[in-house]
């Protein structure tokens, strides 16, 4: 609908310079309008699409390398939770009117590094003018043996509720960035700050758990919108999560933040951006699941049980005080 | 990064109301974070991703049904050009801050109708706040017998250059919408206006040509950025398109527009948004290709030949006057 900016490279030049070097098999160096992919016999594809938007899902001033890693990471986290291994991704990049080649160079470098680390090459996509804040839409494709995708809705009453890693770090990292100068959180010591800020910027999709989820999990999803809200999504239909609050795994950095301001516990439990795995396993299977996960380098904690009932998850303290926690205020929508 | 608008339905409610009814097999009613797809044995998948942005690729005041049809249509046009049959699509919808449920209802209705007409169900995606103008990112998946994808770069010197349908209608429709009140184009009679405006709003992906392209075409792409620019993309490497200007198929409406303002010929040849098929076929095969295309209901014209040389396509008039035409000014970037 409008003319190209006079002194900027066109879409084809941008693609050739910044994205063609990232292209995987079947992408033909991004010289075509579509890519081909030969599926692995006996396997299903798992597909997910998530977009992130400047000023909504990340800060416009975040390093472009980090933005790229987050955009790919949040999608691969969904694949891992379904039990799939990454196969390839497509990118739709909307560039803000004030984009610079330095930003794009950093973004493509971050994408190249993340794609290489995660074993997930670029297959295609497009680059457009966003006419407003930048957006990054990614569609990720994974693969798993036919019929083995782990669903969100498979939990049974009595199953154990498990999470990987630690919960709340990213939400506390975001709270740190938003904290006014006088807030207790703003006085956190620098090592802990660095850990929390890094967890917000750099999701780590738990790809190594994917084969274990296929073997052990009755249901799984990644924790992206907060533990409480995502537990609610996983339940329903006569099932309600009963969580032992003290068993929710917290990092040393998160414990320091909560010591500074105990009210931040709700931020940790509802805040989102964890990109850890939330899953349920049948009673009796949790020991084997945890042992194999630990052997793969990923700590897994059992935090509660699937109870009968309806409503948001119930969190119970060591003192026996129970409360139900709904989704937090840090909704992306 | 920010709280949900207080009196708007959340993402899950929107998905359940407007998009779950569109979900195809493997999408599990959009209740999961990913979908599964079982590939057809002996077939490759063809993947393409194109985003359209309000104020860049469509007018914000366009009917939401039309915006939906365009968003899906431009992607399926890519699949058709590669010889693939549509299988499914994923949607990333970025809603502008002033979105309304009426807009979303129209958008999802248009998407449902287009997906049904094109045989391409919704498989997944997400809905986010755009923080600026709306954007619609679609990733479309097609299928074809293994190893038969038609490439953009397969033309050989001596091959015939063909296009489907008529060229320039959409670009003239866009010019109509942008024309000042006193312009010659603004006085076009209403039937012709309606045709041109409709071609701009409603791409018609040439899905019926896909199997014929696999059989006959040495190279193919869809005409999205203008005939001249797309011909240049298809050539290179010692090949240059030589086009007989009078053989470029024009609709009666386009002929009326050009009669009103002959300078609009360049708009027709360079303007874009045609979503017709541009392909090359070996000499001798064009008659069979055209006959089978006509039997399938799609007129195909032979407009020139692949010559030896470098540079943008050469257009030659009936009087023997030649000129080279570069990509037009209506770049989307």
What does this structure look like?
- Two copies of one chain form a homodimer.
- Chain A is an alpha+beta fold.
- Chain A folds into two domains: 11-145, 60s Ribosomal Protein L30, Chain: A (2-Layer Sandwich); 160-324, PurM-like C-terminal domain (Phosphoribosyl-aminoimidazole Synthetase, Chain A, domain 2, Alpha-Beta Complex), CATH 3.90.650.
- The first copy, chain A, is built from ten helices and twelve strands.
- The first copy, chain A, has a seven-stranded mixed β-sheet with strand order 7-9-6-10-8-11-12, sandwiched between helices. A four-stranded mixed β-sheet of chain A has the order 2-5-3-4.
- In chain A, helix 3 links the parallel strand 3 and strand 4 (122-129).
- In chain A, helix 2 runs parallel beside helix 3 (101-118), helix 4 crosses helix 5 (190-201) and helix 5 packs across helix 8.
- The longest helix of chain A is centred in the N-terminal third of the chain and has 18 residues, at 64-81.
- Chains A and B meet through strand 1, strand 2, helix 2, strand 3 and strand 4 of A and strand 1, strand 2, helix 2, strand 3 and strand 4 of B.
- Strand 2 (43-53) of chain A pairs antiparallel with strand 1 of chain B.
